[in-house]
Amino acid sequence: MSERHCPDCNVQMEKTNVTAEGVGDLYVETDREGGVLDRLGVGYQTPLHAFLCPECGIIKVYANLP
């Protein structure tokens, strides 16, 4: 995953992990044929990556698209 910049502070964001207690990796899941996620190239289970801004604390989550 390429580097990301904060839309508010314009500084490089740091890759981080976002988890829920008892849950492993986050991912997008879809089984809808022809839906918006399918049109975007998001597979049945597509990993998500989180980035944190060290200045303002905003966290952005991105799908790992091809």
Question: What report would you give on this structure?
Answer:
There is one protein chain. The protein has one domain (14-63). It is 6% helix and 29% strand. It contains one helix and four strands, in the order E-E-H-E-E. A hairpin with a 6-residue loop joins strand 3 (45-52) and strand 4.
Which segments are poorly predicted (pLDDT under 50) over 5 or more consecutive residues?
none
* Mean pLDDT level: 80
Helix content: under 10%
Count of structural domains: 1
Q: Structural class of the helix and strand makeup?
A: mainly beta
Spatial separation of the terminal alpha carbons? 10 Å
Largest sheet: 4 strands, antiparallel
SSE topology string: EEHEE
β-strand amount: 25-35%
Our Rg estimate from Cα atoms comes to 14 Å
Figure out the total of helices: 1
Gist of the model:
This protein has one helix at residues 36-39, and strands spanning 14-16, 27-29, 45-52, 59-63.
Give the topology.
Blueprint: E1 14-16, E2 27-29, H1 36-39, E3 45-52, E4 59-63
How would you describe this structure in keywords?
four-stranded antiparallel beta sheet; 29% strand
